[in-house]
Amino acid sequence: MPMDGLMVGFAARELDRLLAGGRIDRITQPERDTVILVIRAGNENRNLLLCASPNNARCHLTGSKFANPLEPPALCMLMRKQLLGGRVVSVRQVAGDRIVYIDMDTIGEMGDHEPRRLVLEIMGRHSNLMLLNGEGRILESAHHVNAEMSRVRQIQPGLTYVPPPAQDRLDPAETEAGPLRERLARDADLPLEKRLAGAVSGLSLASAREIALRVTGPGGDDSDLDAVCEKTAALLRRLPEMTDPRVQLGEDGEAKDVFPFPYLSQDLSRQKPCAGVSQALEAYFGTRDRQDRLRQKSASMVRLLKNQVERCEKKLALQEEELAGAARMEEYRIMGEVLNANLYALAKGPAEVTLPNWYDPAGGNITIPLDARLTPSQNAQKYFKKYQKARSARQSAQEQKEKTLQELDYLEGMLLDVDKCVEESELEEIRAELARTGYVKRSASRRQQRNLPQSRPYRYLSPDGIEILVGKNAVQNERLTQDARPEEMWLHAKDMPGSHVIIRAEGEIPPETLKQAAQLAAWYSKGQRSSMVPVDYTRRKYVKKPSGAAPGKVIYTHHKTAYMTVEEADLRKMIRQEDR
Question: Which pLDDT belongs to residue 363?
């Protein structure tokens, strides 16, 4: 239910209280559907996030940092021209629906006051963000909608903004008992929460269920419809006073839902209080939105890598087949030598011949197929040629097999690295590495490039209070290992793609710290869900990178091996420190 009309109303009221009268000082657009307005209000800068993404559309204040394109998109440039220096007049929800109007007073080129309006429509895959002029015409939008895409409503610069088709529902702020009773009585056989969701604008089924519980009590007795409607109307009017935002946490500690006030219909023990609606929305959407965008941006890379892995596996099968065929080369040599040794006793014409095989320890015979058109000597030479060809093929196939295995190891490592990405900078490091090796083309467009911060490894704290670093990709692995001190402990899953792990301590390593580091090395490897994963560990000074090797490829000595079986529950118990 995160951004149903109920939550949008609470968010809009909070934003209006905090931002009204504030000056717009800066505008950025980190994504095609996301705009950040830096507003100076209440003697501090507040970052207003307006997002029209299909899965995570929302509006709230944010403290997160976003990477911006080197060249701002058209919407961003126009908003800077139209809105910078302007003042926020109001932020309001429209008729209890998932539409927010942000009205602004701006100064035009001639110094006169010009009204402007930002419209955020939070409607799933139809979500959009639009900038309107004083006459209600669309100046620009995050998504353009032409007549081919929708016959009902077009969204294009120059067109007059038309709100989405109105639904026959009541505005919660103006709901009276009489009209509500009329609507609820229409479908008396349906549960109360479904009737409320159909009658009141913006109510999701979860919010309607909460209101029904508060109105009827735990027993759910809604037989007295007049009393139900009176209580519901009073509750809806009282909503602004009930602001007490909560984030519902799952068993893994991650935010699973967000509520504008404690929901009695949900487990209260898992509802974490937040200082404001924006803080609650950011706690819920922040990681979720970042992960969704990473999945979208990495989808083509994952497909490419999987296709390349499949290609390598097919090539490997052919090379194995070729090696199996070359296994007969010794048989060809023996046949040629036996024929050569018995040329005096052979004549041209037979289709095969059986001769003593002195290579057989048991002293048996060997039957040799012959080409009746060739002399015995020519048949012997034919077998020698087959032998030479098979030997050359085996050598070549073995060399190609080694190259294919190395390529397969590299590609599987890249796939593993993509799965570990939590920031766009990490994804870009992998893309750059794939471009270096020729699997993807380098981006020539400055518009697509980002000023991304250098990615950072996972940081864990062992039971002994010692920091453990875990690389997320090949580039990070190399940087992590190079920067480690000589006496620090280095770990890696044996003979498989995985993360470099560094224990940030020298001298004797406590057993529990070493165990946790080995568990991390096993988990962040290709053997993640396997049992008894071998993990090698040694001092950093014994780890070397071969000349010309790919990033993250090393050789090491003086190592010991531990065998680790790690469950996801074990990982949740470990203390992971978030980068600040």
Answer: 79
- Which helix (H) or strand (E) covers residue 389, if one does? helix 376-420
Report DSSP state, residue 163.
Answer: P
Burial 496-507 (b: 16+ CB within 10 A, else e): bbbbbbbbebee
User: From CA 160, how far away is CA 158, in angstroms rounded?
Assistant: 7
Q: Smallest Cα–Cα separation from 190: which of 217, 225, 218, 235?
A: 225
Residues 468, 516: contact at Cβ < 8 Å?
yes
Q: Which comes out higher in pLDDT, residue 450 or 331?
A: 331
Of 511, 498, 492, the residue nearest 561 (C-alpha): 492
pLDDT at 396: 80
Are 260 and 243 in contact by the 8 Å Cβ rule? The answer is yes
How many other C-beta atoms are found inside a 10 Å radius of the C-beta of residue 352? 9
- pLDDT score of 102 more than 70: yes
Helix axes 177-184, 192-199, angle to 10 degrees: 120
List where CATH 2.30.310.10 sits in the chain. Answer: 5-141
Tokens matching residue 175: 């709901």
pTM higher than 0.85 = no
- End-to-end CA distance of the chain, in Å? 30
- Give the separation between CA 27 and CA 307, rounded to whole angstroms: 40
Determine how many CB atoms are found less than 10 A away from the CB of residue 465. 10
Extended beta strands in 174-270, E state? 246-249, 255-259
To the nearest whole percent, how much of the chain has pLDDT over 90? 57
Query: Is the pLDDT at 503 greater than 90, yes or no?
Result: yes
> Which stretches of 192-299 are assigned E, i.e. beta strand?
246-249, 255-259, 271-273
Token output for 548: 């010309």
CB 138 within 8 A of CB 158: yes
Statement: 5-141 belongs to CATH 1.10.540.10: no
Distance CA 280, CA 95 (A): 23
- Out of 101-110, 317-326, 335-344, 412-421, least confident range: 317-326
Cβ count within 10 A of residue 372: 10
Residue with tokens 């320890």: 361
**Residue 176, φ and ψ in degrees, nearest 5:** -115, 155
